[in-house]
Structures are given as structure tokens and as C-alpha cells.
Amino acid sequence: MEESAKSVMEPLAWIFQLISGLILTLLITIHFYLTHMTSHTALHYNEVVARISTPYYKFFYIVLLFFVSFHAFNGLRAIILDTNFGARNRNSVNAMCYTAFIFIFLYGTFLVIIL
After folding, report:
1. Which of 23, 55, 101, 103 would be 73's cystine partner, CB 3.0–4.6 Å?
2. Rounded mean pLDDT for each run of 10 residues along the chain, 115 residues in total
């Protein structure tokens, strides 16, 4: 018997939500440590600009942005799908949430790169 797309996708979406949440916990802990615990001047403008100008930090913040954006829009999608509106418009909700995720991620990546 073949499984429907809904029965396969929703468990996968939940697993991706769980994994992205765990990865976010690690990345946000690293971010917090680097910006709040390493020095008292880490949040001064010159320090922030110097830090974000390095390729390592650009990559780190792009990865952080990816997981934050995915986690947020996948969670929003799940919340909307739990409503009557979402149940009636599943394909539209999926398309809008994933399109918003891609747009926000690409725009944020552009901003990180040009800094």
C-alpha cells in the first residue's frame, strides 16, 4: 500500500523541526558565548564590524540564518495548517511559507555578504 504525501511529509517536517531546533540551540549558544561572554567590548560597533567582516563569521551567521528561517517558517506553516483555513488551503500555505523562507534566507545572506 502506498503512503500519501501528507502521511510522509508531516512526520518529516516534524523531524526537520526537531533537528533544526537542536542545531539552533548549539548555534545560539555559540553566538551568545562569542558576543556576550568573550569580552566586555564584543558589542562595540568596531568589534562587531571586525567580527562580521571575517569569512568564518559570515559563514557562521549564514548557517544560523538558514536554521532560524527554516525553523520559524516551518513552525508557522505547522500552526497555520492546524487551523480550518490551513486545512482547506494546504498547498497554498506550504508554497507561501517555503517561498517566504527562501526569500528571507536569500535576502539575509545578501546582507551578510555585503557587510
Report:
1. 101
2. 58 92 96 86 86 93 97 94 91 95 97 90
